[in-house]
Design a protein that fits this description.
- The complex is a heterodimer of chains A (466) and B (327).
- Chain A is α/β, with parallel strands linked by helices.
- Chain A is built from 13 helices and 17 strands.
- In chain A, β15 and β16 form a beta hairpin.
- Chain A is globular and about 60 Å long.
- Chain A starts with 23 loop residues before the first strand and ends with a helix.
- Chain B is an all-alpha fold and 327 residues long.
- Chain B has 16 helices and 2 strands.
- In chain B, β1 and β2 form a beta hairpin.
- In chain B, α2 runs parallel beside α4.
- The longest helix of chain B is centred in the first third of the chain and has 25 residues.
- In chain B, 50% of the residues are buried.
- The chains are: A alpha/beta (466), B mainly alpha (327).
- Chains A and B meet through β15, β16, α12 and α13 of A and α1 of B.
Chain lengths: 466, 327
Amino acid sequence: MARRTFSIGGVHPADSKISRDCKLEYLPIPPTVYIALSQHIGAPAKPVVAVGDKVKAGQVIAEPGAFMSAYIHSSVSGTVKSIGPRKDLSGNNQMVVEIAVEGDEWMENIDRADNLVTSIPDDPKAIIEKIKLGGVVGLGGATFPTHVKLSPPPGKTCEMLIINGCECEPYLTSDFRTLLEKGEQVVVGTALIKKALGVAKATIAIEDNKPEAIEHITKVVETLKAKGPEYSGIEVLSLMKKYPEGGEKQLIDAVMHRQVKSGGLPIDVGAVVDNVCTALAVYEAVQKNKPLIDNSVTVTGECFPKQANLIVRVGTPLNYVIDYLGGVPESAAKVISGGPMMGKSIANLEAATMKGTGGLLFLTREQTKRMPESSCIRCGKCADACPMGLEPFLLNRLAKAGDTDALEANAVQDCIMCGCCLYSCPAGIPLLDVISQARGQVMGIMRARAAAAKAAAEAAKASAGS
Amino acid sequence: MDKILVSPNPHIHSKTTTAVLMRDVVIALLPAVLVSVVFYGWKELFVLAVSVISCMAIEYLITRYCLKKASTLGDWSAAVTGILLALNLPSTTPWWVVFLGALVAIGVAKMTFGGLGQNVFNPALVGRVFLLISFPTYMTHWEIPQGLFGVDAISGATPLGVIKEGLMQGSTVPELMASHGYSYSQMLFANIGGSAGEACAIAILLGFIYLLVRKVIKPWITLSILGTVAAVSCVFWLANPAQFTDPLFNLLSGGLLLGACFMATDYVTSPMSTKGGIIFGVGIGFITLMIRYFGSYPEGVSFAILIMNSTVPLLNKWFHQKKYGRA
């Protein structure tokens, strides 16, 4: 049988999962944590603690600032030292709550026992409420507040829940280790999300470079299916390894053979996609009352002496993580938060981890070297690689000419910033650099136009009414 | 670690550079080069050497001294043009004719447009067609040596030339095929007279498969050319086998395979999209056959490719890849 995958584009970088055999390990608690108030898509959370307050691990320190926002909890016990700006990993100021750690005291209602709770609550609303109170956000990269995602707008129904276990970024292994070591919790979490959405079918999609995970999760699903009807309809699907399979749009195409229209949402085609680590966080929030205060982080790179998959408290300074494993190696030239294809290069190692931090990758100058730029040879490799079916060579040319109309007509706004074009360009042309800038510009124009159209429509309605 | 590097994603590269791709094309041409040297001997080696060295030297001199830029020889594209030009010439071509061909190929067809990536027409083909029109005697004189590096040689015309000539004198295709002893196995494996690179179909196909395996090119353009030639010639041949050559003969004779596998698939001068590539290929196949059947030249692959090269900007404008989530 042909290996299943998404239908357009994609590339095959070496997967370099050198940390795949490193078991999940709890990182010791740092002396101070810096918990950002904006670590999700949407409005920043509003702090509800004051300097000098004593907090426990799992205690709410900030409440959602809007509908699209999330609760934030203290990841440690201790005293709030300050609330104010601190530089994030790009060097930009972000509001953070600084907490000096004292002991490790948790909120009383958190169940810290290891036993697996498999019974699924009957009320979907109660599940979503607990997810919201747990501050769960999407851990696949976008940090979209999960409770918002699980409340589809009226008129839209979910037909399939997809749990994303692709981990298609090279090097990263935290999802893989979570599947192997916390597979039961992930599957219970899947059943919880399934129940919350009221959907009959759920697919846990895993790339076939992780056969152990596929085998293990298949077994877990079989065992849990005996526990109750809430577990029926959960399937494990093996997908061909190809980047960016874990991209939401690509995964929906691979699993459901449906494509989300430009500007649309997965729910428009009946899909909801959540990462395996999100499923785990849902399990912990709903079954154990444990909010999202720690997450797994892969620390890796050929030049890094000690590979690891760590469970890190939210707000742990990056250099604390790195020093625990022996410090920054001499040969490293770049440190990346996330994977090598879509990760962000870190300018400030004093920044702290956030809920969505999934990996710290060290690359040498040689590994991350950009090719010297030469003439486009019109080979079309960028267009073959683009998983959105765009033509990066053309977008690059149009962007240089500043032709925003043509850029929009050629769908620059559909770019998902996966990096396949620049990765494959034999002439080393900085395609994505140019395209992402043009994309921002075009999206700004489109937003302005939509706002103007809305205002005009309202004005017309008002004048018709008078 | 003294300085921390910060740059946008992606942070890694496939390491497949222009030079790697072009080197793969050179490797893919090696079977055809080897066979041509075995068949045509030292003379062919000399033509190859003159062509490659001239192409590289001309490109170097133009980039360094006219454009005042860094040398582009490292991208291997001049070497590819040199080899392709040589394979498109008879082994008996005098060195100064080869040099003129290289001068037109690199100097006129490539560098005046701005170098690699900018040219509209395939440089090696422009060089060849320039020579074909300017020096028809040299370009249609084929010498077939007897045995490996043999000294005794017989001169002759290509099968396509023989048939064109014969038909004009009133013979029929089957008579001509029989009287010259052309067989398909001979055309597939051995030397039948013609440009050096046209000597052995198998050698060209080997190179083509290598390019496919290495994912340097996609097969659609080539398949579209060969499919069109086969289909269209089949119609004519079935209608009148006395006047028109059959599909297999058309596929294996002349420069069709070399053109379809190595010249029409040139990145710079072929369409970007699959659909555009297929239409490009249909055009090349059709024009080739029309020239062979009705034109005054016995062979039309070079002209067909050059004509279709000129349609590429339009094909790129009209045909795009399928986009995600858009009808």
